[in-house]
Amino acid sequence: MRQSSQDSFSQVFIDLESFSETLVEKVGLETSKTPTCILFDENQQFVSFGYKARQTYLKKNGRDSRAKFFFDCFKMSLYDKKITTDLTIKAANGKEMKALKVFTEALRFLKDDALKTIAKNTEGRKFLASDFTWVLTVPAIWDLSAKQFMREAATQAGIMTDGTENNLVIALEPEAASVYCKKLPSEGFVAENLGENKLDRSPGTRYIIVDCGGGTIDITVHKVLKRGVLKELHKASGNNLGGQTVDRKFKEFLRDTFSAAVWDEYEKNYPSEVQRIMYDFTLFKKCDDDVEIICPLNLGMMAQKKQNIEEYFKRVQGASWNEGSIKITKQTLRSFFEDSLWSITRSLRGILSKRLNIEYILLVGGFAESQILQRYITDEFIDDCKVLCPITPQEAIMKGAVEFGRNQGVVASRKSAYTYGVSLLERFNESIHRADKKYTNKEGDFCRDIFGKLVEIDEDVGWNETREHFMYPIERDQTQITLAFYRTKKKKLTYVDEPKVEEIGSFVVQSPDTTLGMEREIDLEIKFGSTEMTATATDKESGSVHTVILNFMSSGVKPTSRWCRSFPCYGKPSMPSPPHRLNNAERNYDDGDRELLAIKAGTKNAKPLSTQFAGDESVKEPAPILPPNWTVGALRWEMEDVIHRAPQQEPDPGTGPPNHTYVPLQSTNTSVAARPFGTPPFKPSNELENRINGSLIINPDLPRTISLAKKSGYLHMTYH
């Protein structure tokens, strides 16, 4: 909400609370949160949303309900799927509609309803959608494509337009709940633990948020830092075994009880009645007691045609027929929860086993209202930590989202759920690269499909932290660069087509000015630490800055094969690059391109080594060490080729010490072993030492350069 309307917002919030209480009194609803359901007519035109949609649909007779498109709990249609703008989802009548239209109309209704409510409470003052910041909550375990899909739906709903993209904030649901619970007083939690229902808010406190929603179980782990900000200690995790899993178990129970033939025919002919009995069950499942549900008339009549109703229940344990009602014991009711409770327990045990010193488990979300769930989790983890649940757990996300929208930096850092990278090219080297990866154009030979790492799995990324990546064209007349995004749960890999690596999106960067040919540099800045992945690209020559559209929704069209070279090299020396124009400081360094390419991936201020130690450019420039007509380039020692080719002739027997490279004695007269830099004892091989002390010493600053490279981990040398 913008500052100009903040006072109005406070009044609106109070009136919305009063409206919720009135709604409960009038129609007997037990929550101020509207259900996620929407109704369209037979022509796929929007009719109503929320409770009104449900009540309207439940009043329909069989024939009328079969013609309407009713969607309930449709948010789950975006979980764990390949998402496109053409994705379709199934309505209660079995017919399909485009998911984008369903989500767009739901968001349009919420936007219009909010603006109407605000206008009524601000003395008729008219507001536009662009006057506000809108916060849209999504599960933390949702894919990037699902988040992009929601942003597209919000755009089509008129929540934001070109130029107002920042008016929409995507909030992760367990994070929003965490922000809310952190401010909740002790009386705001269920008093189950005899006075221990208070959350410690002091720095160092660690807790797990378990968002028990209707569709998903969404889990994150936070640590409270100074000034009350939060740090994510474990990447978001969860599954699709939320409260709807219990509903499905109940429906399976009815199908098994009345037989598949009776139930399937009933569900096909009377979809609105099925929705009514499922709605009744959602109210009963909050309790831990025997339940009695009225059997719909049409279901009873269809079953009665086959046999007496009592006969169906003779073979069912834990349920009975009671004069028009289905009576279910609490033991049978608990059995419907088994899959979901087991999944929550397994996830929590996995997190606790990592010894993160967790003190609390916080249960939030609508499914957390269930007494069965609350008691089970409390009993299961009573010896590990305190289990707390807000009195109104499903409001935690909504109210926390408002706080998050006001201060997105409240979650100071997050864990990367994957290793992310882009597909790049390097100059081809037959001793390092696979032969099938060789790509040749008029500029030379390249190795394609190199995985250029941007961020690593489990890496801490600040919420506003930007990673920088430099890109160069591979053709002099290339006017655009297309890069494909990839992700994997591996930490180390070389190529993008390795097993368990998937393409998740792409972007295009324009570079229309081709004057500098292959020396053109485009600076790509990517923000990973926020709830969405965003990027900007700067053409260094023209100075133009533009937002890069990251497309994570599958389009069925592969990115055009206009690859690029890219630096930094992310921890290992890159292959020789095209000619590089040296600046004043770089001309005084001896190792030329090899050093200049050793740029470590990191924050926005990452610089080449030579630039980091360049000093003040305003100081009088010293005379160049090398004559201006000399070309500075990277050299490669023959010993490196020997080491790389040796295992092809005689494989490693596997009996040597760890972190060493096996080199057969017959391959070289010098006994050599390679180990990661920094592993003692350090002693260069005779051949390498002779070369360093001999023909390669062409200026006195080489030892300093080698020393800097060693400290940074970029120089991998050969050892005895």
What's this model, at a glance?
This protein has 720 residues and is an alpha+beta fold.
Kindly describe this structure.
This protein has 720 residues and is an alpha+beta fold. It folds into 4 domains: 161 residues, no CATH class; 201 residues, Nucleotidyltransferase, domain 5 (2-Layer Sandwich); 184 residues, Substrate Binding Domain Of DNAk, Chain A, domain 1 (Sandwich), CATH 2.60.34.10; 75 residues, no CATH class. Helix content is 31%, strand content 21%. The chain contains 20 helices and 27 strands. Strands 15-14-8-9-10-16-20 form a 7-stranded mixed sheet, with helices on both faces. Strands 18-19-17-22-23 form a 5-stranded antiparallel sheet, with no helix packed on it. It has a 5-stranded antiparallel sheet with strand order 26-25-24-21-27, with no helix packed on it. Strand 8 and strand 9 form a beta hairpin. Helix 7 packs across helix 8. The longest helix is centred in the N-terminal third of the chain and has 22 residues. The N terminus and C terminus are likely disordered.
How far apart are the first and last residues' alpha carbons, in Å?
65 Å
User: How large is the radius of gyration?
Assistant: 31 Å
CATH class of the largest domain: Alpha Beta
Helix content: 25-40%
* Alpha-beta classification: alpha+beta
Q: What is the multimeric organization of the chains shown?
A: single chain
Lateral arrangement of strands in the main beta sheet:
15-14-8-9-10-16-20
Low-confidence stretches: 1-28, 556-563, 567-622, 667-704, 708-720
CATH superfamily of the largest domain: ATPase, nucleotide binding domain
Shape label: globular
Averaged pLDDT: 77
Largest sheet: 7 strands, mixed
Strand content: 15-25%
Let me know the number of strands: 27
CATH fold-type name of the largest domain: Nucleotidyltransferase, domain 5
How many domain modules? 4
